What we know:
Layout: H1 2-16, H2 30-42, H3 54-79, E1 87-91, E2 98-100, E3 105-109, H4 110-115, H5 119-134, H6 137-141, H7 146-165, H8 171-189, H9 195-211, H10 216-232, H11 245-260
The chain binds zinc ion.
Zinc ion is lined by residues 128, 132, 193, 198, 201, 241.
Amino acid sequence: xxxxxxxxxxxxxxxxxxxxxxxxxxxxxxxxxxxxxxxxxxxxxxxxxxxxxxxxxxxxxxxxxxxxxxxxxxxxxxxxxxxxxxxxxxxxxxxxxxxxxxxxxxxxxxxxxxxxxxxxxxxxxxxxxxxxxxxxxxxxxxxxxxxxxxxxxxxxxxxxxxxxxxxxxxxxxxxxxxxxxxxxxxxxxxxxxxxxxxxxxxxxxxxxxxxxxxxxxxxxxxxxxxxxxxxxxxxxxxxxxxxxxxxxxxxxxxxxxxxxxxxxxxxxx
Length: 269
Ligand SMILES: [Zn+2]
């Protein structure tokens, strides 16, 4: 009897995967972290926001997506864990953020493209959100997202309306955003994915970019930008993706491993 209930509990635990990552991720050393902290502190200067037209924002996003999509789809099928059909939404929000929501929805804020120094950095953000879907992090977190979904629907509806009035977006984009608002809000309204899941999404992004033949060192600069923004609270709205020197250090460890394995996935956790 006792044995039976123990096994039942063990089964439930292994199915949940609530807080964890699908893969074994490299561990950070104190030295990695110290170096990243020094780099972020000395990177100085204000955050650089590029002034881009709507057409330029669209071109950069479309081009970045085109470059990584084949490798990302292949990797997702190889993992065979999560959602591999993605729907992309562009938000007129100028803060540095992006999110992954139910039904494969990926929202990229305009602010991501404006703060990114190059296409590789935009690709990294898209690939990170793809990573959350591939590893099924979104589904694993949905149990806690019901309240967030309600709040998020209101928030996204307001954003979409503002975007239509301004320079961005169209009536059809607004309607699409309103339709998916409840789902997208599930991700935005959630406090966060677990730290391990965030690291896994970054690792998968590194694999995707590597397999796409993109420059991982050029992409890395975005994490330094995020760490600067987090430290100074200049942009806010980073709640769903807190980032600091630790994330930069973890990226470096991931990239070293990805290069050493020629883009293979790590062992399953
Ligand atoms: Zn994330």
